Amino acid sequence: MTDVSVSPSSGRKYSGEREGLAPRSRPLIQRPDVLIFLAILALVTICATVLAQMGYVSTSTVKLLGKTLCLCLAALAMDLVWGYTGILSLGHFAFFGIGGYAIGMWLMWDRTELIVLETLAQNPLPPTPLEIEEAIGAQIFGVVGSTEIPWLWAFAGSLPVQLAAAVLVPGLIALVFGWLAFRSRVAGVYLSILTQAGTLALSLWLFQNDSGLRGNNGLSGLQNLPGLDDVPQSTISLWFLWASALALGGAYLLASWTVSGRFGSVLRGIRDDEARVRFLGYEVEHYKLAIFTGTAMATGIAGALYYPQAGIVNPAEIAPIASIYLAVWVAIGGRGRLYGAVIGAAFVSLLSSWFTGGGAPDIDLGFYEIKWTDWWLVLLGLTFVLVTLFAPKGLGGLVDLWTHRRSTRVDDLGPDQGSLRAEEDRP
Amino acid sequence: MSALLEVSGVSKSFDGFKAIDNLSFSVAEPELRAIIGPNGAGKTTFMDLVTGKTRPDTGSIRYGELSRDLTKLSEAQIARAGIGRKFQKPTVFEDQTVFENLSMALASPRSPWTVLTRRPSMEVRAGEVAERVGLTAHLARRAGVLSHGQKQWLEIGMLLAQEPRLLLVDEPAAGMTSAERERTTEMLVEAAKEHAVVVIEHDMEFVRRLNCRVTVLHEGRALAEGSLDHVCADPRVIDVYLGRPETEGETADA
Amino acid sequence: MRFLLFIALLLLPLPAAAQGAIQTLLQTHAEDLANPSRRTIQPVIDDLAASGLPQMPDFLEAWADRRVVQRDADGLFFYGERDGDVYVLRSVEDGSEAGEVGRREASELRPNAGVRRLIATALVQFQLNDPDPERRRAALDALSRNATPELLDPLRASIPTEQNAQIRARKEALERLITLRYGEDQAARLAAIEYLSGGVSLEARAALNNVLTTEIVIGAPGAETNVARQLRIGTDIAEDQALALLAEEGVEVADVSRADRDAVLIANIEDGAVSGLPVASLASETRRWEAYDVLARSGVAPQRAGPDAVSELLAANPIYEVYDEPDPAITAAAATALDEVNARVARAQAADLGLDALSLASIYFLAAIGLAITFGVMGVINMAHGEFIMIGAYTGYVVQQIVPDYTVSLIIALPLAFVVAAAAGVALERLVIRHLLHRPLETLLATFGISVALQQIFKNIFGTQAVPLTSPDWLAGAWTLNDVIGISYIRIAIFVLALMFLGLLVYILRRTRLGLEVRAVTQNPGMAASLGIDPDRVGMATFALGSGIAGVAGVAIGLFAQVTSEMGSGYIVQSFMTVVVGGVGSVLGTLIGAGMIGGLQKGIEWLNPSNTLAAQTYMILFIILFIQFRPRGIIAQKGRFVQ
Q1: Which of C432, C435, C641 sits opposite A424 (nearest CB)?
Q2: Does ipTM come in above 0.90?
Q3: Residues of chain A with C-beta less than 8 angstroms from the C-beta of C265
Q4: Is B36 domain-assigned?
Q5: Does the keyword DNA-binding apply (chain C) (predicted)?
Q6: Using CB atoms and an 8 Å cut-off, which of residues 2-31 of chain B contact chain C?
């Protein structure tokens, strides 16, 4: 039963062990993964900028890069909530969409207002606020057969309010939802399904014309910044690339800081054995709620940066499947390590655009031609299954090979506490 | 000697099976107390009730000078109130280093915001605890690679690091060598000089070494209480331990 | 010359042909028939109808359809069909051929609309007494669509002789409808109302509503009018609607619209200012009105109405709803009757809603039960469960391509779908889920990967277009109790199917060794394993069973919904909700969960019928809240381990 060989001894000095202490407790800026990550991020951004200025890289490529960085940020948040804390949220992409909607409302409103003002300036009389509002209402909501401005748009003309909304609305929704769910100790697959259902509810609601957010039309023309019609898209795309890179870099630092030290230990403790953390005196629900809400806000920021580059946000973006893809990216990249999430998101989303964009050469089997636009999803789905089965560490596992991390145990990811039967395994 | 923990008239049943049946029990501070009983006697359920994992159907569990009702507190609140628990199977965070395990356990503010922003150095305190349980050399190792006995020690270390007033220790000696048992005994006796320590144990030899008051649990009730010799002489206890084979009640102690 | 002779020879014998009874009768009215007018023709029609000649209906029909011609040469009437330059003639007696005549040598009888209506009325009388019951039914259908007071008498006359009880009942019902609508006798109409208050048919409701039609009258109505109510502003009618009504009657506040105002302002801009106010300052509504008022005071523009003008106008012009029906006794009785009918309709609608909910619940049950038992036994969520539904539906489709007979193909498809989906389920369990034991979150994601791949593979094979899964004819109709309650046979069949599987599952779980093992593993896997139950085998069997049922559900769903590669994902969330609400691993729980979700969805749709999307949103929100109170579902698993 036991093979204890090391009997307790008290003669050892512990002060000399400092160097050997967990790398997680070292100052952030000395940690290799943080340094390497920031260096690569800076390199990519600067290279892209320079090449774009020289004309070697197209504006659409810069946008693709910028969008990818935003997806990486969302994946980073997903990794915090799932990879570290063990909450498999299938709803985080909804927060991404909400962030996009919040900023999209301002972009659309402000731009429409400028256009409307221009039109009304033809009028001999200067426009009144009522006239402006009516004209904007007709412009924006004509597609859903209405000219009324919904209450949701009350502050759409104010950039600060909408920016705050891009962060606070996801935060608030996550707070309420998380409070309800964690309070009643809904965990594991139950929570996953519940988050998925919530996401579905949100997307169905957005699909309605009377939701006040233009139904399935969504918000469009977001790539045009109000008042900056003179600035070419090639420049704007670089601005957003830099903003996305800064956000990702900042988020990476913040996330590294969060998962380091005792807080990180508690998070991983919750993932591995929630009940044990409770018996240590930590209010698990508060930690979960903090992480759930915080990552929702980060995802909201990612969405707010993403959609001005994508140009359009509509309810289909929020469909539950998008959130699952987020989990897929993190899983393929390697969960429980921050760079894994980033690698996964970047790798899979870029590969996906390459395959679905017709970049990959079709394979002619003689009797059948494999068109990657058709078969990419099959490839992705099956690859994902294989990764889950045989390489649970994902692409990040390759880094282990390189750094010769000793342990190859699956336990690195912690026991999967999603089980209903988690309780049974405990004494 | 006032009671630190006062359990009175507590019952708990699972689908009709009475795991704890009108149990009353109290322990003072400082005091060392052993609870013995056959399988299914309700020992683990008793611990679950005190630590808030399970809520009693009836009865009250009061703790401390203010006689706080533990049945109304969450597990985490109970833990913060000063009740530490060591599980039967070693339950440590295998993915994390010994140091991280200990630093999580060390008595310190527990709220998310404080833990996130205040980051006092815990190395000295963790080192001290590690020294007490003999894991100094292993501070930077992952707990998952420790041997079974070392995990037991780590968990005891985590219990000590919490600086609880009431220590609930479930079969601490399981899977230990005799030298380790001896040390465990010392440690528990030492802790009991200041605090209340409740030890659940099967092993009579170990209990004898603890040399303390013993409560015998049987079918969810306190069958007898007193010194080990006293309870061993009790015919009902003999009946329970020797008279009947241990066939029933797998459920309650699985 | 020879040609003319030929014509003459051809024509000659015809007048000599024996004139039949109809021709004789027609000839007596030849003048009126040739030049009918609404005033003069009634006696003619009456005479024709009264003749009782069996060929008369045909003639009347032809006459109304303008298929009768009069030969100029001899004034005889024929059925004539235009064929190029000639009319092909047939005898009015027996329809036998009667030669042809040049286009200009005969004239069509062209009864005008008024006359045609009179003819139709006369015709109805024949049709209502036609020996062929189908024709009588057709006549009644036509009558109920297009009732006129003239038809009342023929209808009444036909009732006593009617032998067919069903048709007689319809005739009586119709008689009352028409009586109510056009009858003169108050007592008869009240009796008709009384009769109608006992039904729920659309016709009855339409007839009662018809009695209660109102029109808007402005100003105090006369003593003779049958006033329904006065419309009070704010409670019965919104102010702007009231103003619009008044405007229709020409009663308007002399108000100036914003556009009018702006036009006046623009017209009066002088040197960058309007009546002394600089144009640039007119950037608000109040400023513009101020400027306008200045202009109005100086007489350039009409004055605006005062602030109380609207309320004064409304006070001076009360708006009433006045019944078209002058008799207050009739309208009062009709209103009461309509309330009664509506109450009954509401109850019937509730029953209908219940049936709808029941059928939806059966679908959810079939879709979710497999998920519930695999979740219960193995603790894993199978995201590809929806794809098993799809696989079942496509199996049905493929079978239909091979076996053209829909009944036979359905009989083959149901078990085959079970087998195919079960095989897919076992493959999934063996290849993926087995290897992720005790890692349910990863199982969830891995099965999601399978789900994505399967969807896309089926899309690649069968295309993105929905394919049909046609139900056999005997399932095509609907069972209708009355105009409100009805349910299609397919849904009844699905309900029966769900009942069968419920019975089968209960039998398997309660009466077989496998069921015992399944229950054991569900309640306590560790203990079950230590008792020698092979969890692998049980897992595989449950997976086969659960997936197979999903396959069958796929066929059933495909019969009334579209078969697409994405159809499974539409049901998966609902299925999860069913399982979560009902309680994991419990057949009864799934049944209750399905009933609750089906009922809830239909209920919300009923409250908000225009918007099924909103219904789903609210339902999901409700379920999220429900989980707060019963986190383990309605039928919670018991035992210490699930605390």
Answers
A1: C641
A2: no
A3: 125
A4: yes
A5: no
A6: 14-15, 19
Q: For A150, which DSSP code?
A: P
pLDDT the model gives residue C609: 65
Q: Are residues C529 and C485 located together in one domain of the fold?
A: yes
Burial C391-407 (b: 16+ CB within 10 A, else e): bbbbbbbbbbeeeeebe
Which of 54-73 (B) contact A at CB < 8 A?
none
Distance, CA of A229 to CA of C113 (rounded, Å): 67
Q: Establish if C59 belongs to a structural domain.
A: yes
Check CB contact of C441 with chain A, cutoff 8 Å: yes
Q: Is B177 helix (H, G, I), strand (E, B) or coil?
A: coil
Is C521 contained in some domain?
Answer: yes
Q: Do C638 and B15 touch (CB under 8 A)?
A: yes
Q: Check residue C637 and give its pLDDT.
A: 62
Q: Is C240 found in the same domain as C307? A: yes
Q: Do residues C517 and C533 share a domain?
A: yes
Let me know whether C516 and C403 are in one domain. yes
Q: Is the Cβ of B79 closer than 8 Å to some Cβ of chain A?
A: yes
Number of separate domains in chain C = 4
Digitized pLDDT (tens) for each residue of chain B, 254 residues in all: 578 898 888 988 887 788 888 888 888 888 899 998 877 778 888 888 999 888 898 888 999 888 888 888 888 999 999 999 888 777 889 888 999 999 999 988 889 999 988 888 888 899 999 988 888 888 888 888 888 888 888 988 999 899 999 999 988 877 777 888 888 888 888 888 888 999 988 778 888 888 888 988 888 888 888 888 888 888 888 877 765 544 444 443 43
Using CB atoms within 10 Å of the CB of residue B28, give its burial: 0 to 12 exposed, 13 to 18 middle, 19+ buried: middle
Any B CB within 8 A of C610 CB: no
Q: Which residue of C385, C431, C439, C441 to mutate against A (max A Cβ within 10 Å)?
A: C441
Residue A270, pLDDT score = 92
Nearest by CB to residue A381, choosing from C266, C453, C525, is: C453
Buried b (16+ CB within 10 A) or exposed e, C549-573: bbbbbbbbbbbbeebbbebbbbbbb
Contact (CB<8Å) B15/C639: yes
CATH of residue B86: 3.40.50.300
Q: For B222, phi and psi rounded to 5 degrees? A: -80, 115
Rounded to a whole number, what is the distance in Å from the CA of A27 to chain C's nearest CA? 33
Indicate the burial class of B234 (C-beta count within 10 angstroms; 0-12, 13-18, 19 or more): middle
How close is the nearest chain B Cα to the Cα of C638, in Å?
A: 7
* C245 and C391 together in one domain: no
**Residue B139: closest CA among C588, C164, A91, A20:** A20
In this structure, is residue C317 part of a structural domain?
yes
pTM attached to this predicted model: 0.81
Query: Chains contacting B with at least 3 CB pairs below 8 Å?
Result: A, C
Give tens-digit pLDDT for C288-346. Answer: 888 888 888 888 888 877 777 778 888 888 888 888 878 888 888 888 888 888 888 88
Task: Residue C225: give the domain boundaries.
Answer: 217-323
- The answer to whether residue B12 sits within a structural domain is yes
> 3-state SS of A111-129?
HHHHHHHHHHCCCCCCCCH
Assess whether C22 and C55 both reside in one domain.
yes
| C 484-543 residues with CB < 8 A to B | 526-527
Q: Has residue B231 been placed in a domain?
A: yes
pLDDT band, very low/low/confident/very high, at C391 (cuts 50, 70, 90): very high
- A280 and B162: CB-CB below 8 Å? yes
Residues 31-70 of B with CB under 8 A from C: 53-54
Domain membership of residue B141 (yes or no) is no
Q: Total structural domains in chain B?
A: 1
